[in-house]
Amino acid sequence: MSAECRVDGPQYFDYSGNMESNQVVEALGALAHDSRLAIFRLLVQAGPAGLAAGAIGEKLGLPPATLSFHLAHLARSGLASSRQDGRFVIYSADFGNMSKLVEFLTDNCCGGKACAPAPRSRRSA
């Protein structure tokens, strides 16, 4: 494999950059739970530096066993990854896979025509 083709870290989605339907379903299924969605959003807010598992549990009020279950589900779905930092396990969102998921969902948006979401209307009180 040439140096140009090398990808650092684990790859969840296939090498061509296209997601398979089963991968999309798994990723969306992982996000289809209140706790996992809250964890993922927190990881996205934390950025690439990520957060220690204990800090996630404290911020969201999740017991360690429940948190571990949900973090493992996000990792299996390719939306989060972990790394050891001393005695702490740091979790971070996998921004590459998140972007591929959004790209898959919006592929050929509006039949290939330029489109933009309608501006939100502000309601007056």
Secondary structure: elements and pairs:
Layout: H1 21-31, H2 34-46, E1 51-52, H3 53-60, H4 64-76, E2 80-85, E3 88-93, H5 95-106
What does this structure look like?
The structure is a single chain. By secondary structure, this protein is mostly helical. The protein has one domain (17-107): Arc Repressor Mutant, subunit A (Orthogonal Bundle). Helices cover 46% and strands 11% of the residues. The chain has a 3-stranded antiparallel beta sheet with strand order 1-3-2. Strand 2 and strand 3 form a beta hairpin. Residues 1-11 have low confidence and may be disordered.
Architecture per CATH nomenclature, i.e. the level-2 architecture: Orthogonal Bundle
Q: Which strand-content bin applies to the residues?
A: 5-15%
Strand order of the largest sheet: 1-3-2
Please give the domain count: 1
CATH topology: Arc Repressor Mutant, subunit A
Q: Report the C-alpha radius of gyration, rounded.
A: 17 Å
What class would the helix/strand composition place it in? mainly alpha
CATH superfamily: Winged helix-like DNA-binding domain superfamily/Winged helix DNA-binding domain
**Helix run count:** 5
Distance between the termini: 61 Å
Helix content: 40-55%
Please state the average pLDDT score: 84
Q: SSE order in H/E notation? A: HHEHHEEH
Largest sheet: 3 strands, antiparallel
CATH top level? Answer: Mainly Alpha
Total strands = 3
Shape: globular
Which residue ranges are poorly predicted, with pLDDT under 50 across at least 5 consecutive positions?
A: 1-11
